[in-house]
Amino acid sequence: MMMSLSQLMEESFQIAWEYLERSGELGDAAAASRFLGETIEIMIRRGQRNRMALSNRAIGAYQRYQTSETPVSNRGSRSSA
Predict the structure, then answer these.
(1) Distance CA 27, CA 21 (A)
(2) For residues 32 and 77, what is the distance between their CA atoms, to the nearest angstrom?
(3) What digits encode the pLDDT tens for the residues 5-47?
């Protein structure tokens, strides 16, 4: 049975959201919501229709985004001890 694109987006978003929430990686809820929604929408527009692929790719993209948002002063800092 085919699901509508809005249902595909909703289910993919929910899977990604719940995973990130359970893993403690969600961060700012508003930013996460925008990021996941936009990322999944772009993939659907490009033709992706597998909800697990959509959610897994959105999770990976969000994790990379969160890592890249780490302040430069905290990256690669070494202790002088």
Answers:
(1) 8
(2) 27
(3) 999 999 999 999 999 999 999 999 999 999 999 999 999 999 9
pLDDT at 17: 98
Letter string b/e over residues 42-70, b meaning 16 or more CB atoms within 10 A of that residue's CB: ebbeeeeeebeebbebbbebbeeebeeee
Q: Among the residues of the chain, which ranges form H helices?
A: 5-23, 29-45, 51-68
Indicate the pTM of the whole model: 0.81
Which residues 6+ apart lie within 8 Å of 57 measured at CB? 39, 43, 48
The C-alpha atoms of residue 40 and residue 45 are separated, in whole angstroms, by 9
Q: Rounded to an integer, what distance in angstroms lies between the CA atom of residue 30 and that of residue 52? A: 22
Residue spans per domain, the chain: 5-68
